[in-house]
């Protein structure tokens, strides 16, 4: 996977064995400030690429 490349849902499941924690089309939760929970898929093929992207964009 190249840097800054997006994956389709099916490709993420088939190629990298990762799934979203929850759907993106859900109502905002009470008290939510616009942040989200993020689970890094430890023990999966894409683990270090996810960490690299997080450090690059979030610090």
Topology at a glance:
Blueprint: H1 9-16, H2 47-57
In short:
The chain is mainly alpha-helical and 59 residues long.
Keywords for this entry:
single chain, 59 residues, mainly alpha
Q: What can be said about the biggest beta sheet? A: none
List how many beta strands DSSP finds.
Answer: 0
Q: What percentage of the residues does DSSP assign to strands (E)?
A: under 5%
| Number of helical segments with 4 or more residues | 2
Helix-strand pattern, N to C? HH
Polypeptide structure, described:
The chain is an all-alpha fold and 59 residues long. The chain has a domain of 29 residues. Helix content is 32%, strand content 0%. The chain is built from two helices and no strands. The mean pLDDT is 72.
